[in-house]
Amino acid sequence: MEKSRFKVLAETGIMSRPATRLVMAAQEYTSDVTLTYNDRTVNLKSIMGVMSLGIPQDSYIEIEINGDDEKEAMAGIEDYLQKEGIVEKVTMDADA
């Protein structure tokens, strides 16, 4: 299992274009990928699930990945999120 926590930096949060691209990035891997925000967890490969969370700027999210390519998947998803300026990685014990 790979698990990381992030703070959302994007002014628009994780909605519309960022959400669509994030889902597309997750779909490149065979592992199960989930996104948690405000105690709600959704499949990160589902655009409807991600959009239903309504994730705003300055919120905290967690991504958990389980499967054969979990390390590669986490590296790829983190790379996408950080290159696009959508999030910054934070330690798992940071205050939300």
UniProtKB/TrEMBL annotation:
Enzyme class: transferase
Domain of life where this protein originates: Bacteria
Molecular function GO terms recorded: transferase activity
Domain HPr: from-to ranges: 1-89
Keywords: Cytoplasm, Phosphotransferase system, Transferase
Major place of residence: cytoplasm
Any GO BP: phosphoenolpyruvate-dependent sugar phosphotransferase system
Localization (cell): Cytoplasm
EC number from the UniProt entry: 2.7.11.-
Pfam family name, one: PTS-HPr
GO cellular component: cytoplasm
Protein name: Phosphocarrier protein HPr
